[in-house]
Backbone:
C-alpha cells in the first residue's frame, strides 16, 4: 500500500483518537490529540515495512483549473449556485450524538488539555481551528464508546483510575496535584478520563471484533521479503508532513497560512510536530504528521522531488499537490538493506557545565570558549573524569547511541571524530554547555532483512487499522448528530 493511498487512516489501531506522546504504560495511550477524522485526503495508510516491499503506486494527477474534480459518483454540476448564506465563522460547539450530549465546555476543556500537555499558549486564531478538530474528535470518541457498549465492552472506574494515575506520574505529579494542574489549565479530570475511556474501549473493540478476522498468509510474507531484497540499495526517506487543503476559493489564504507556519517552524517557536498536530488536515496529524519510511515512487511527484533535494532536518514548502499544499520535514534518509555509517553505535561520555541563572549570552560565550579549550586537551576517555572535576562538570556515560539518533548538526561531526576526541561545545545560556567525547564506535556490517514474523505482525496491524477506519466511517454515516 502506498503513501498516496494513506491519508485517511490512523497509523496504528491505538492511534485512533490519540493525543500527545505521553504514553500510558501498559495501556498504549497518550493525551490530548485530535483524532483522524475524514479529510480532503481520506485514504488508507501504509505500515512501516511496506514502503520497501510494496509495488510502486500510480502517480497522482493534477486536476485542470477549468475542470471539475472527481466526486466519486456524486452528481455535482460544474456551474453551481449556492442558495442561501453560509457563514463559516459561525461555530456550533454543542452536539448531540445519538442522544449523547457534547457541550461547549467539553470542547473548551479538551482544547485546554492540548495546550497543557504541549506546555504552550494557544493563540486565538489557532483556538478556533482547534475547536473544530476537537469537536470532531469528541464525536468520534462518543461513537466508539457507544459501539463498544453494543458488544458489552466497558471500561471500569478502577481501570480509569489506574490510567489517570499513570498519566499523572508521566507529568511527575501525584494524582491530587495533577487534578489541580488540569483545573488551573482550564481543563478537568473528567475531560481526560473521557479520552481514556474512548481509547481503551475502542482498543478492546478492535481486539475482540476485528483482529481475530485478520490473517496474513505465508506467501504474502515471502513476496514482501523478495521485494525488499529486490529494492536493496534504494533510497528511503523518513518524512513528516503538514497538509493544508487549498480549494480555488481559498488558495491564497491557504498559501499565506502555510508560509506563516513555515516561518514559525524556522524561528523555532514550536517543533514541526506541534504544527502538524494543530493544523494538518490529513489524518496523520494523529501521529505528528509522520509518513514513516517511504520511497520516492510512493510519493506524489511533487513531494518526491522535494524529498530528493532535502537534507535531514530541513523543511520544504509550501509544495502544491492535488487539492492543496504540503509542508515537508525530512527527518532522515537511508538505503534499503545497505550498511549506513549513521547506524554505527557509539560509546560516549557527555560533559555538561551548567550556567548560573541570569547568565548573559556574552558570559555564556566566554565560558563556552574556556570549556572548549579544556575538552580539546582531552587525551582519551580515561581523562574525562579528571578534566570534568576541574570544570565542575557533570559526566554521563552511554554505550548504545546510534549516530542517526543524534541531532543532524552532530551527526557529521561524530562520523569524523577519532576515538578519544570531543565535539565542539554546544548548548544555550539557559541549559548550559555540553560536549560529547567518543570512546568507541561499532560500525554496521550490512543491512538485514526483517524477520518473517515482523513482516507478518505489521501487515496484520495495517489491516486492522484499515478495517478500524472503515468501521468508524460506517459509524459516522449511521449516526444521528444534531448541532445546537
Residues:
Amino acid at each position: 500500500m502506498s503513501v498516496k493511498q494513506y491519508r485517511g487512516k490512523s497509523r496504528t489501531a491505538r492511534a485512533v483518537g490519540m493525543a500527545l506522546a505521553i504514553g500510558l504504560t501498559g495501556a498504549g495511550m497518550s493525551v490530548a490529540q485530535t483524532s483522524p477524522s475524514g479529510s480532503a485526503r481520506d485514504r488508507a495508510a501504509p505500515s512501516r515495512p511496506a514502503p520497501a516491499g510494496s509495488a510502486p503506486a500510480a502517480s497522482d494527477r493534477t486536476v485542470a483549473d477549468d475542470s471539475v474534480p472527481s466526486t466519486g459518483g456524486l452528481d455535482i454540476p460544474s456551474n453551481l449556485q449556492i442558495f442561501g448564506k453560509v457563514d463559516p465563522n459561525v461555530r456550533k460547539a454543542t452536539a448531540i450524538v445519538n442522544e449523547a450530549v457534547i457541550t461547549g465546555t467539553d470542547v473548551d476543556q479538551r482544547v485546554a488539555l492540548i495546550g497543557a500537555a504541549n506546555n504552550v499558549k494557544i493563540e486565538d486564531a489557532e483556538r478556533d481551528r482547534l475547536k473544530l478538530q476537537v469537536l470532531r474528535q469528541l464525536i468520534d470518541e462518543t461513537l466508539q464508546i457507544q459501539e463498544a457498549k453494543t458488544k458489552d465492552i466497558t471500561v471500569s472506574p478502577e481501570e480509569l483510575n489506574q490510567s489517570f494515575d499513570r498519566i499523572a506520574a508521566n507529568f511527575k505529579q501525584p494524582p491530587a496535584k495533577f487534578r489541580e494542574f488540569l483545573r488551573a489549565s482550564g481543563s478537568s479530570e473528567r475531560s481526560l478520563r473521557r479520552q481514556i475511556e474512548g481509547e481503551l474501549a475502542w482498543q478492546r473493540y478492535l481486539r475482540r471484533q476485528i483482529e481475530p478476522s485478520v490473517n496474513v498468509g505465508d506467501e504474502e510474507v515471502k513476496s514482501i521479503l523478495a521485494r525488499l531484497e529486490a529494492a536493496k540499495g534504494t533510497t528511503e526517506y523518513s518524512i513528516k508532513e503538514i497538509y493544508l487543503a487549498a480549494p480555488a476559493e481559498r488558495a491564497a489564504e491557504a498559501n499565506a497560512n502555510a508560509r506563516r507556519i513555515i516561518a514559525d517552524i524556522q524561528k523555532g517557536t514550536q517543533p514541526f510536530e506541534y504544527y502538524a498536530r494543530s493544523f494538518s488536515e490529513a489524518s496523520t496529524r494523529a501521529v505528528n504528521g509522520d509518513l514513516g519510511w517511504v520511497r520516492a515512487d510512493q510519493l506524489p511527484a511533487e513531494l518526491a522531488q522535494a524529498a530528493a533535494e532535502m537534507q535531514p532536518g530541513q523543511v520544504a514548502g509550501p509544495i502544491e499537490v492535488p487539492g492543496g499544499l504540503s509542508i515537508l520535514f525530512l527527518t532522515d534518509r537511508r538505503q534499503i538493506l545497505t550498511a549506513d555509517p549513521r547506524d554505527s553505535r557509539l560509546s560516549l561520555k557527555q560533559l555538561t557545565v551548567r550556567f548560573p541563572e541570569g547568565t548573559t549570552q556574552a558570559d555564556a560565550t566566554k565560558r563556552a570558549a574556556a570549556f572548549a579549550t579544556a575538552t580539546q586537551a582531552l587525551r582519551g576517555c580515561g581523562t574525562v573524569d579528571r578534566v570534568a572535576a576541574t570544570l565542575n562538570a557533570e559526566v554521563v556515560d552511554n554505550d548504545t547511541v546510534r549516530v542517526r539518533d543524534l541531532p543532524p548538526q552532530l551527526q557529521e561531526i561524530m562520523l569524523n571524530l577519532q576515538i578519544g576526541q570531543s565535539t565542539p561545545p554546544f548548548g544555550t545560556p539557559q541549559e548550559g554547555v555540553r560536549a560529547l567525547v567518543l570512546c568507541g564506535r561499532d560500525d554496521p556490517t550490512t543491512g538485514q532483512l526483517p524477520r518473517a514474523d515482523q513482516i507478518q505482525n505489521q501487515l496484520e496491524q495495517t489491516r486492522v487499522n484499515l478495517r478500524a477506519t472503515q468501521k468508524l466511517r460506517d459509524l459516522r454515516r449511521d449516526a444521528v448528530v444534531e448541532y445546537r
About this structure: The first strand starts at residue 95 and ends at 97.
